[in-house]
Predict the 3D structure of the following.
Amino acid sequence: MTSTSHRFSRRDFLKLGAAGSLLSWVPVSRLAAAASPMQYRLTAVKAGVQLAQSPFPETEVWTFNRESPGPLLRLRQGEPARIAVKNELEQPLTVHWHGLRIVNNMDGVPQLTQPPIDPGQEFVYEYTPPDAGTFWYHSHVNTAEQIGRGLYGPLIVEEREPYAVDREALWVLDDWRLDNEAQIVGDFDRQRDLARAGRLGNTVTVNSRTPRSFDVRAGERVRLRLLNAANARIFSLRFQGHRPVVIARDGQPLEPYAPGTAITIGPAQRLDLLLDMTRQPGERFAVLDTQYPQSPFKLMDIVYGEQPALRTSMPEAVPSLPANPIPEPDLSDPQLQPVVLAGGDLGRLQNAILGDKELDITRLYLLGKMWAINGRVSSGYTDIPLFTVERGRTVLLDFQNDTAWPHPMHLHGHHFKVVEHSSDSTVVGQWLDTVMLGPEERAKVAFVADNPGGWLFHCHILGHVRSGMMAVIRVG
């Protein structure tokens, strides 16, 4: 997991990070309090952030409002929002509202839904979020680098009625590839990363800090919102001494359940957990990440304060969140669409179409293109659509991962219901916007194509997007 391109190790950072505790979250100031629509202002700018603990210097990251992650935006379900974005970086950018089923021209994809926001320019996003839940926002220009340098933030759409917990917490998970001076290594085109599992960093953070503890009180019930903002890292979290209950995935409520093993969250995915703090004052329990068996590590400790328990017994019932208004797919006569993922190292792809030419795999690698969907390699956001569907029609996507690497596949503008999954039965029946497919796995997902426009469809391992695993779906 540690990069071989420099000597500074993840273990060094994690040891230093043990000196700090998890910071609280402060939301961005609104442009106008108690106004309608909800109004925010975001400015993309470079800033120094203490990713690694002293004596290492601050890391220069790309931020919104000089915060890393960017400011927490809290919107209201079914109420209009207005977010003004100014670009003070040297690269153009857009802002994509990941997981929100909003109008096409506000989706934040350059060339496809809007012109890029050039340096020094502004763009105003206006939309009404139909769903409550945990979402996020990030740039969709040069995504591997811009997200890899920190240009993203969390977004919560509040339920109309508060969910019954004692408090909420938000963990934005990420990893960073840092050099000996704690600065971001700029090898975003490294072929080994592009053609394999993606860019893994050597420094894991929560809310852009290397935390020591998550401080709790005995007897409290916590809603923990998890967001994986990493370029490629998959997390598998084990909460020692606790039994987390999953209440939502990718922002969409589900029937609460307690996973029997580790809680896995892939790039771009979100999970809402209910955590009952059932242990005793003064105790501590580790939260472990065991996704990569060759290098498991402790993310942080859950630390109980010395104050008396908030209550002596926890509520037995775990209430469900109210469902969001997503149309149910009609599986009696769907438009069936195969989605075959191919390419990468150790793969079987021999040739694929790039633009209007069919090229062999050697030539594709020389062009920095390693991945294909249905035999076609993406050359940009204005590709010929993978398929077109009539508005209101149910689509059944039949995924087949013919590669040796994982792919979290994300669809803009819609959520889909998982119909089948060859290795993860827990997600069947759930609404997702990003489905994880491991090597050689298959899955079927269904959605009603009710949101008109051209929608991006891509792997959310961002190096894979950069090297060809992206397509456009057009809803007519």
